[in-house]
Structure to design on (723 residues):
């Protein structure tokens, strides 16, 4: 089931944990590490890494984003896969870097080299390592929120669901409107907080209606938004990153 | 038009508090989303069709001059007259001139966003000409003296009760609450307007260059009457509405109608080539086509945002947008609401007139997935954001620039980054409750007012890494 064959053991992964996970949710990075390690992958963490530049890019500060993007590209220039616990930051590298350097042929080549080996965690497990059951167990009713960038930029939809369903003890419930935005949107969440939260309200309703006790997603941005309302409103549903779920019971 | 300044933050705050509006939007949008997704799901060719629609638009916009000239020549050949308007003012003047020349006292109009854009009603009424909107939704909006809040469903922000009350107040009818009754009243009122009108004004969904035909899509039959009953028909179009060939129409009609209303085909599709000919039973004596720029060629000149001109005004992005669903159309401050409004309003009016709009999106991308011509709206929004930020008039102020520079400086340097994260861990302590931050001071209060914020971890991942890296799996 979850142990890779000999060839796959040669797979090398550099963790791109994202600044959000590094500072606010280190347990997500640790979980990701544990799962990959358990699958027999060689894992490394380039310690120079900080932020991929997405906040600046999204806010219209392209020059600043470029500086951080270049920095990122030089840090992850070595071989091997780059795996991140975020569909959004993966999108930055795989999709938006091309946008950012659209008029710079030399940079585009660098981006190309790197973006083809950059993956979001769940798609990496399913599409590259070809695993489904990672040997985790968790008791609970789990529902999944599609993070927008993962879903609509990277087309990640079945991968996380497959992984969740194969966790021992999990009852998977598909909630209504799982693919509708949670209202986070990066700086949008503080630029227009009331609009952001009113969008979030519908997501929370869906979650409650599903009857799940655990909400899983691929991105800490969304989980911070959804989780922030769940705790504020004393709703007994736990917001959890998919890496945490997959590391449970190990 | 010059003095428009969109205040999205204020407008949206008002909208969010309006319970009636929230109810109206919620009902209408939920219902529509189901209908549309069925119309698209049951149709295997959908993706293929979208791709061709996009291709044709790309080609046409790249060769816009040629096709516009071809259109002009063919409209003239069919006996029509073509007018070119560089901006809203000119477009209004042209239409007003035509009206004056024909001694027009009363005008009927079918639904047209272009005429909203130039505030044509205002100009005509200013010259003492009576204007009646004949699309049901537009009629309601005109009665209420408001602006449409949706491209396809102009009165989407009104509940049935609102409309019933409006009819009581303005038309002195009894309180009817059934849609059929309300429609019947409007129909009766409008019938006499059609018969009395001297001029009909319509928009254009597509203008076919090779034949000089304009195409109008509708469900109520009012556009057909508007364009055939009065003596004079004036159609107003933006330069981007031209398509090359008659052959392209099936593609566009298919994607437009499915996206706009979830139907397979609309009740009426009118093809108008010039005025009434000798053999025709009905039709106007004169046909005028006004082709308007009004900021569009400016969009054309920017390669990165040019695709904004591919829009066929189907309204699908409005229906799918989570932000639009909450704030409604009027929050966008001008005639074009929702995602498409967020990208074309700042481009048509000038970025200084609506600097907030490119930011009024969570960038969820649902719009780009439904758009029948595959406009990458999030990409355009991001490009416009960078234009706003570097704009001297409305761009980032000193404080914001300073904050971003400070942030970048931190992110560029691992040691400072580590120090900053450690520092935040200590600084946050007074606000910590159960491991969360529940009420932070401004500006962080913009988050914590309604949501908890996670506390900075004591040991960051990179610190933990040193301990875990040598563990075996
Ligand atoms: S942007 Fe696309 S989805 Fe939105 S109105 Fe235009 S054509 Fe329709």
């Amino acid at each position: 089931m979850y142990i890779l064959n000999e060839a796959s053991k040669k797979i090398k992964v550099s963790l791109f944990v994202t600044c959000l996970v590094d500072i606010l949710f280190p347990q997500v990075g640790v979980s990701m590490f544990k799962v990959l390690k358990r699958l027999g992958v060689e894992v490394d963490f380039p310690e120079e890494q900080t932020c991929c530049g997405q906040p600046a890019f999204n806010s219209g500060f392209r020059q600043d984003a470029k500086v951080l993007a270049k920095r990122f590209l030089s840090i992850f220039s070595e071989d091997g896969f780059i795996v991140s616990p975020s569909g959004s930051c993966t999108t930055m590298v795989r999709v938006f870097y091309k946008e950012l350097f659209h008029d710079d042929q030399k940079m585009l080549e660098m981006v190309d080299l790197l973006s083809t080996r950059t993956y979001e965690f769940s798609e990496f497990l399913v599409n590259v390592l070809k695993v489904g059951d990672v040997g985790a167990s968790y008791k609970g009713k789990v529902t999944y929120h599609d993070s927008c960038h993962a879903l609509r930029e990277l087309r990640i939809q079945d991968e996380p669901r497959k992984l969740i369903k194969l966790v021992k003890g999990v009852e998977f419930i598909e909630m209504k409107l799982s693919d509708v935005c949670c209202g986070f949107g990066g700086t949008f969440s503080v630029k227009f907080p009331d609009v952001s939260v009113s969008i979030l309200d519908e997501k929370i309703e869906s979650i409650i209606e599903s009857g799940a006790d655990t909400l899983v997603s691929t991105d800490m941005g969304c989980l911070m938004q959804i989780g922030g309302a769940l705790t504020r409103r004393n709703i007994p549903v736990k917001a959890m990153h998919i890496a945490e779920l997959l590391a449970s019971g190990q | 038009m010059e003095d428009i300044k969109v205040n999205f933050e204020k407008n949206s705050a008002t909208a969010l508090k309006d319970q009636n509006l929230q109810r109206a939007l919620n009902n209408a949008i939920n219902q529509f989303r189901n209908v549309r997704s069925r119309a698209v799901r049951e149709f295997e060719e959908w993706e293929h069709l979208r791709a061709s629609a996009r291709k044709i638009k790309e080609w046409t916009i790249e060769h816009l001059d040629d096709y516009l000239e071809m259109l002009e020549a063919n409209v003239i050949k069919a006996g029509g007259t073509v007018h070119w308007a560089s901006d809203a003012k000119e477009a209004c003047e042209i239409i007003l001139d035509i009206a004056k020349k024909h001694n027009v006292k009363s005008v009927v109009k079918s639904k047209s966003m272009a005429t909203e854009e130039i505030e044509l009603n205002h100009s005509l009424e200013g010259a003492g000409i009576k204007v009646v909107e004949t699309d049901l939704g537009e009629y309601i909006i005109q009665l209420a003296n408001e602006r449409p809040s949706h491209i396809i469903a102009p009165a989407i922000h009104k509940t049935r009760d609102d409309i019933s009350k409006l009819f009581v107040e303005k038309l002195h009818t009894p309180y009817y609450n059934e849609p059929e009754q309300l429609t019947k009243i409007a129909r009766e009122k409008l019938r006499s307007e059609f018969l009395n009108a001297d001029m009909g004004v319509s928009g254009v969904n597509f203008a076919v260059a090779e034949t000089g035909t304009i195409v109008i899509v509708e469900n109520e039959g009012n556009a057909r009457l508007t364009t055939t009953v009065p003596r004079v028909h004036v159609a107003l179009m933006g330069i981007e509405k031209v398509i090359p060939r008659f052959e392209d129409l099936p593609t566009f009609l298919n994607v437009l109608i499915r996206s706009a209303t979830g139907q397979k085909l609309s009740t009426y599709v009118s093809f108008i080539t010039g005025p009434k000919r000798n053999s025709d039973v009905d039709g106007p004596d004169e046909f005028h086509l006004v082709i308007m720029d009004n900021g569009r060629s400016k969009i054309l000149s920017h390669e990165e945002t040019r695709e904004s001109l591919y829009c066929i005004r189907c309204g699908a992005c409005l229906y799918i947008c989570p932000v639009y669903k909450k704030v409604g159309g009027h929050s966008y401050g001008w005639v074009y609401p929702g995602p498409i409004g967020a990208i074309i309003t700042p481009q048509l009016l000038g970025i200084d007139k609506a600097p907030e709009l490119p930011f009024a999106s969570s960038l969820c991308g649902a719009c780009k997935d439904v758009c029948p011509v595959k406009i990458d709206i999030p990409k355009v929004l991001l490009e416009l954001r960078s234009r706003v930020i570097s704009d001297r008039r409305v761009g980032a102020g000193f404080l914001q620039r300073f904050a971003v520079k400070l942030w970048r400086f931190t992110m560029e340097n691992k040691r400072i980054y580590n120090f900053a994260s450690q520092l935040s861990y200590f600084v946050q302590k007074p606000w910590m409750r159960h491991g969360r931050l529940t009420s932070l001071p401004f500006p962080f209060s913009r988050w914590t007012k309604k949501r908890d914020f996670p506390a900075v971890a004591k040991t960051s991942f990179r610190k933990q890494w040193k301990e875990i890296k040598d563990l075996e799996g």
In short: Residues 132-246 of chain A form a domain with the Rossmann fold fold (CATH 3.40.50). Chain A has two domains: 6-126, 132-246.
